[in-house]
Amino acid sequence: MAQRMGFFTDTSVCIGCKACEVACKEWNGLPEDGLNFTGMSYDNTEKLGADTWRHVAFIEQRKPLARQEPGVDHTGPVPPLGTPPETAPMTPMTQGEGGDLRWLMSSDVCKHCTVAACLDVCPTGALFRTEFGTVVVQSDVCNGCGYCIPACPFGVLDQRKDDGRAWKCTLCYDRIGDGLEPACAKACPTDSIQYGPLDELRERAAARVATLNDAGVDDAHLYLADTDNGIGGAGAFFLLLDDPEVYGLPPDPVATTRDLPAMWRHAAVAAAGLLGAGLLACAGRSR
Q1: What is the pLDDT of residues 181-199, one digit of tens each?
Q2: Gyration radius (Cα) of the chain, Å
């Protein structure tokens, strides 16, 4: 089997350009999302779905950036167009004052879980694990049963209304098989999305968190980087600047099929007990 590959998304350098969304759609031939204004900040896609395999979240917060100039207080009359900045009636603000704003931006994607519940429940084998450790849907094998959709603890999978089949990120299986970067990572102008061997990405991510923490960004932490979490580790993990819930991510995701083996064992024991009781009852009647 080839070396396991994956994504490391460093949200601290995401600028919300959505180049990853566009590149994903162009390479995979995905339909557009309607481009409707959702009313949720500047986000026009809102969440991952059958036609959105990369989704950039925009979170606006009244919170200053650590050790950075938060900007200016735009109080008073608006200066005439063309007024030099040094004469504009704007008062510089010091860090920590009320009114500071920051944007949290994060490009979300399928997590390609080690313990993939979607794969476990698929009755047709449409979902399979590749030689790179990623999880891919074969659309020509999918029968549209939808079992994988509630099984995913992240709500990644979705069905298209026109055909009912399930769709999600393939981590550009057709590209990485030829030694190419996934389209989203190739298009990212800030290297917020990084692709490579998972072990190397985890080392790089740990070093990045340490750098940010040393710079005073105490909230910086890794999400889904551990291999002993509820999904056995993820093929796509993230550096976040706030709690996972702020980004719309579950804080402690657990594979919904994790307890299936134990459940089957208990069911087998119960069935054996019932069978034994039935045989004893039959034997008692024959005497």
Answers
A1: 999 999 999 999 999 999 9
A2: 24
